[in-house]
Amino acid sequence: MPARLSRGGLVVLAVLLCAVLGVVTWLVVSDGDDGATGPAPPGNEARPEFAAPDRPPVPLTVIKIDNVEAARPQTGLDAADVVYVEPVEGGSTRLAALYSEQIPDVTGPVRSAREADVELFAQYGEPTLVFSGAAPEIEPVLAESSARLVRPRDVPDAFFRDPARPVPHNLYVRPPSVPQGTGPAPTQVLPRGDAPSGGRQVSDHVVRVGRDEYRFEFSPGTGRWRVVLNGSPVTSVGTGDVGAATVVVQQVEETAGTGVEDASGSPSPVVRTVGSGDATLLRDGSLFDGTWSRSSPTEGTRFTTESGQALPLADGPVWVLLVPR
């Protein structure tokens, strides 16, 4: 007499049949996949706008560069995609050079990071941030940033000192020897495009950041704005004068930092680059007045004219001056 399955056995058999049917169905559907995108994998549900699949991340390295008289001329400035001018304590300025398309063999002099760097470079995803060090109060803030931090103690062989220059203005880095960060291309963070109408032609423009005076002189032959600091052209060792296709003067809020002071007791300022404010943009021999906006740390910065038109940057290197309002 044939054996009869118990009720429990029938349930197990039914479950097995359903599982087999599900696998067969999955194989059939997968074999005919037409490239349509399915549900996002876990952890990718909230992709930032700049991380869209059709815009893959690019290599990004940010290097903090000394900017006092003893540090000039600097090395590697000419290869930067974007140079940020940041106010620091005592009315001085420091540079943050961002590299993507070209990586120079040597860059420097390298100096310390600041609290403002965390918010500023969050819009670039996970870049490498190269710096000489930071005050103890700043280290925990930097550790929470999205950047990959690189100091001499992290990659000792990538750094060296120039004995012909005084300490601390003689520390240099070999960027190809440091780990490479990634993030959205500079052209996504700071959109490029044709100039809108309404600009006025100018041959030069002066901006003061703290005690430093920056003059930008337009050369029709090159389409670049030559950078002049405190009356002397900014040059890069081995290449000569440094110029920008676009200059952005970004009026930002300044707040007190974490209590860090320099030797004279001057507090370290923190400029806020999330929010909105007035902006002046120089490109193609014209000056445009407008506004800037950035709604969150992971979003890029957008510029508009006074009439509300998009105000994109020109192709080529960019200098951004963060000026406390």
Protein topology:
Layout lengths: L6 H25 L26 E8 L16 E6 L5 E7 L16 H6 L6 E3 L8 H5 L4 E3 L8 E3 L9 E3 L7 E3 L2 H4 L10 E2 L2 E6 L2 E8 L4 E6 L2 E2 L1 E2 L3 E2 L1 E2 L1 E16 L5 E6 L2 E9 L2 E9 L7 E4 L12 E7 L1
Parallel strand pairs: 1-4, 2-22, 4-5, 17-22
Antiparallel strand pairs: 1-3, 1-8, 2-3, 6-7, 9-20, 10-11, 11-12, 12-13, 12-16, 14-15, 17-18, 17-19, 19-20, 20-21
Describe this structure in words.
The protein has 325 residues and is mainly beta. The protein folds into two domains: 54-186, YerB-like (YerB-like fold, 3-Layer(bba) Sandwich); 200-260 and 268-324, YerB-like (YerB-like fold, 3-Layer(bba) Sandwich). The chain is 12% helix and 36% strand. It is built from four helices and 22 strands. Strands 1, 2, 3, 4, 5, 8, 9, 17, 18, 19, 20, 21 and 22 form a 13-stranded mixed sheet that branches. Strands 10, 11, 12, 13 and 16 form a five-stranded antiparallel sheet that branches. It has a two-stranded antiparallel ribbon with strand order 6-7. The longest helix is centred in the N-terminal third of the chain and has 25 residues, at 7-31.
